[in-house]
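Backbone description:
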Amino acid sequence: MKTAAAPAQCRHDAGQNHAVVAIPRSPRLLETLLANLDGAVYRCRDDEHWTIEFVSEGCLALTGYLPEELLLNQRISFLELTHPEDRAMVRAHIDSCMRERRRIDIEYRIVRADGALRWVWERGVGIYGASGRVEAMEGFLQDVTERKEAAQALQEAERRYRSIFENAIEGVFQTTLDGTYIAVNPALARIYGYRSPEDLIVGLRDISHQLYVEPERRREFMRLMEQQGSVSNFESRVYRRDGDIIWISENARAVHDDSGGLSCYEGTVEVITERKLYEAEMRHQATHDALTGLPNRNMLHEHLQRAIQAARQKGGLTAVAFVDLDQFKFINDSLGHQVGDELLKTVAQRLQSCLRDSDMVARQGGDEFVLVLQNQSGGEAGIAEVMQRILVAVSRPWQAGGREFQVTSSIGVSRYPDDGRDVETLLKHADSAMYRAKEQGRNNFQFFAPWMDTQVSNRLEMLINLRRALDQEEFKLYYQPKLSLVDGSVVGAEALIRWQSPEQGLVPPDRFIPFAEEAGLIVPIGEWVLRTACHQNKAWQQAGLPPMPVAVNLSPRQLNQSLPAFVADVLAQSGLAASCLELEITENVVMKDAEKSVATLHALKRLGLQISVDDFGTGYSSLSYLRRFPVDALKIDKSFVRDIARDADSAAIVKAVISLAHILNLRVIAEGVEDEEQHVFLKENACDEVQGYYFGKPMAVEDFTAWLGKQAIRRPDPACK
């Protein structure tokens, strides 16, 4: 394109005389200027293809085409250069500008020669003829791709931020320094119970008083912001719009402007109500008994420690009372754990009703409760009055399973500072006093006295020695014969445990079995008894003695689903036939959980052994259950046998048991027979078997073996060999 030289002129003022001077310039000055522009200058026709009449050299860098390739559409037209999707929009804009004689000002995409897309900004004007028609369009195209991409990236970032802001689960906010919300997202509105962010901004104008349950939390929030410039995991209770209280956790920071001045606060809010409730529940479970809801042992120790500190500082008498239920095990074993649990909850309520708000009742474990009584101004008399009130409250009649029970308690009391100056000592001495109350006939309370420590030491020594006895094989089995009342022959024997203690000599079971149960040793001891009795019975048979069944007593804790497998394993190891083993289970044990007992007894019976119900008549057997139990015999408790010759009621009970057993096709065994009168009565009333000192005391293995060699032994079962 050729350009005409347009002489530049300047005015020189010299005494009002003006001279016009031409400044010479290069004829290619305009071409050089156009070539150096960052873009392309053009002139095109206003036709269908926007035919190019002139384009500067900058078109190569912009479009990838040489100027001559665009002139007169030699290779490509201006229209084809425009991105297909933008052509209609560009055409409409330019047509509108031409009609309205406006400047062209538009951004759109072009397709470079290499196929790349570029954004261009076009500015131009229409050249109009004398007739008013558009003769041409002249303008300038500049590459604005980087700016457009930056703007698009910013727009996308803003869109994403807006999406995050609008759709976040956490609440997001900005507030002024004085606590007015500037911006909030929908999540925060939902958290605080407002329909929309706008409602929250309008309705929540005073954060300190409208929002925070404890306004001092807002003051603490502001203090941290001033000191640190941020807060993390700041937990508070706040009001929702409907008045409900929730827990929130805030994270926030101070926002500064370009000059460093504080402009606002911004942050996030998360609802943590469920977590706080869960934590509270965990704390409660850690410090309270799950069954009764009373404080547990951990909380008891903490409370008692605080009570001791308060008494040490302010004076006053603090008492610790150890409460143990007297008949709980009997009811728990007879009626089942569910009834036992209901009893414990009832007793807990009764104990609480007897105390002041400043006192504490805690569950120590099992059927044991501990009371902490603070500031007892009445001395021992005042404590005694409270204990008497507790004895009466606990012993009130109690209903369970359609029956009425009366449960009593034994209470031991220790006092601070006379009986101890620390938690452990006070509890230990209260426990010692409680055992003294039991020795005094139960249903009473006893204050601790120093001599009671000796009794506690004896009990602890007994427990320690029992653990050693099992390891050192100090237990022995004695055997007591069972005889037939028909012909006097030996029909079996019962294995009875004894403890050959190095310190105490031969200890009978009634002295150590309760301690074994308390120490958790009764199960391994019971298993030892079963193994030993089976191996001894097999040894007698191998020595040539006629086979007979040997009875073994089972502990309540042994009667579980694993018992049949254990018994089968013992029989296999000893080589003893199952019919030569009889298991004795007390009436209360089988009635403890009758449904499970039936299943376990059937599994045992399938092994081929015999089962008898011991201590019959002392529990709560139901005839319907007794018919379902796969038992072979009933053993009448010796408490009834002892008085059958002198007491009409005992005689009637024994007769009824014998009759009932025979109706159910069960053998009847009377234990504790000690004289001829009892023998005659039982024989006359068709009792099947007897056992007691009148026929033979429990004997050591050697003595019983010698005794057996002189007796006639009835073969009970061909399989017993």
